[in-house]
Amino acid sequence: MNATDSQPVSSGPDLPSVIHDYFAADRDGDIDALANCFVADAVVRDEGRDHVGIDEILAWKAGASRAYRYTSTPFAISEEDGRIIVTSHLVGDFPGSPVDLRYIFRLVGDRIAALEIRP
């Protein structure tokens, strides 16, 4: 896949397994499964803030889950400069819903080392 390719993710097989697992854990609210998606010193950047390490990442996710109810449906994937970009449609009770967000993943082995979420 190159930077200009973008494919539907309707069947899911094109998502790397750890990214598939990330979205499944988010959907199911499975904190243990979510923790297993990341390397120990992973960084998540969301809404302009960095969350570093598993504990901060889980606190960020728990806070988002307490604040809002939402569903996230990935619908496109591309790759750019070694990063995997998944575009997902979010619908929920948060301001600005619905919205399409880009999830920019950097993987190390079979885990997520970095994730940036942005419009």
Key terms for this structure?
single chain, 119 residues, alpha+beta, seven-stranded mixed sheet, 3 helices, 7 strands, 27% helix, 45% strand, globular, disordered N terminus
Short description:
With 119 residues, this protein is of the alpha+beta class.
Structure explained in plain terms:
This protein is of the alpha+beta class. The chain contains 3 helices and 7 strands. Strands 1-4-5-6-7-2-3 form a 7-stranded mixed sheet, with helices on one face. It starts with 6 loop residues before the first strand and ends with a strand.
Give the termini distance in whole angstroms: 22 Å
Unreliable spans are: 1-13
Across the major sheet, the strand order is: 1-4-5-6-7-2-3
Shape: globular
> Any idea what the radius of gyration is?
13 Å
- Class from secondary-structure proportions: alpha+beta
Number of alpha- plus pi-helical segments: 3
Helix content: 25-40%
Proportion in β-strands: over 45%
Q: Helices and strands, in N-to-C order?
A: EHHEEHEEEE
The description of the largest β-sheet is:
7 strands, mixed
- Mean pLDDT across the residues is 89
Number of strands: 7
Helix and strand topology:
Blueprint: E1 7-8, H1 17-28, H2 31-35, E2 38-46, E3 49-52, H3 53-67, E4 70-80, E5 83-92, E6 99-108, E7 111-118
Parallel strand pairs: 2-7
Antiparallel strand pairs: 1-4, 2-3, 4-5, 5-6, 6-7
